[in-house]
Every structure is written in structure tokens, then in C-alpha cells.
Amino acid sequence: MLYHEKKFIRQGKQRIAGVDEAGRGPLAGPVVAAAVILKEFKFSNRIADSKVLTRISREKAYFEIMDKACVGIGVVGEKEIDGINILKATLKAMEVAVYSLEETPDHLLIDGNVTPQMPYPKTPLINGESRSLSIACASIVAKVTRDFIMSYYDLMYPEYGFKQHKGYGTNAHFKALARLGPSPIHRRTFTLYK
What we know:
Blueprint: H1 3-10, E1 16-22, E2 31-38, H2 55-68, E3 69-76, H3 78-84, H4 86-99, E4 107-111, E5 122-125, H5 133-156, H6 162-165, H7 171-180
Parallel strand pairs: 1-4, 4-5
Antiparallel strand pairs: 1-2, 2-3
Helix pairs in contact: 2-5, 3-4
């Protein structure tokens, strides 16, 4: 998990930022990206792709990452997603996350095969959450942050069940949409609910 970080550190690049997102696929809510520059590489909690961790494991890891890293977060809401499309919104969230870092990165490790246009050297890594510790940390931070946001939206719109499905297209979510129609945080261009 540290192969890529160590490779760039050997080249004299000390601040390697892992970048990942959460929330490209849901029918509601924002897309959230995180950029993480690790200050140390040893963790007491399991660090892995956020999708393979339990909610409790993710949240424990999240707080440890926040203690041991420089973290930037970018959030792009559903209205902007509808206005520019989900890919552009995801890239914008990544840019905001990187520019939110308190330190300037020397190199970016970005999950996926598409990268935002930024003035930093960058390496895209497909399945980066399982190949880079920094990206795995970014995956956890983005997912936990987005889950917190969706839990807040659940308080505003409890009838949709956002706390349970986080805006993804579950049976319960589709039934709520059929009964109630879209809420203000539903993405209008994600036409599965029409």
C-alpha cells in the first residue's frame, strides 16, 4: 500500500496527497472528495478501501486519519451536479479538496483514470484505494464526511431514509420517491426516479 508513496519520496517529493471521492452514484446529495497528505504511515485502525470497511471501522479510521494527516475536503452539491454533470462535479470536488490542504502537495495520487486539471504532478491509479495508503485514507475521509452530511439531511427529510441508504438507489429509496416525489436534495438529472 506504500509502493507509490515511497517511490515519489525517493524522488525527493515529501508531500504526497492521495485523492478520492464518494457519492458519484447516488440519486441524492453531494459528491464529496478528500485529499490526504500523511504525516505518518502507521495506524492502529485498519486502513483500506472505504467500501470494504464497516461503518464503525470507517469512523474509527477517520478520526485517526484526521489526527495523523493534513486533510482537505471538497463538496459539490446536487444543484451543481445537475448543472455541470457528475464527472465535472467530481473533478471540481477533487480540486477543492486539494486546494483546501494547508500544505502544498508535491505530487497527487488520484483514484481512477481521469484527473482534474491542476498545476501539480499527478498519477492516476485505477483501484487506487487498494493500491495506495494515501488514497485509501482519502476514500475513508470522503465517505465518512458524505455519510455525516446525509445523516444531517435525514433529519431534514426523514421520510426518505437518507440515514440508511445515503441517497443510493435502494428499494426503500425508490418506494419513497414513488410515494413522495423528489426532495430538494435529489439530483434532477439522475432520471431513475422519473
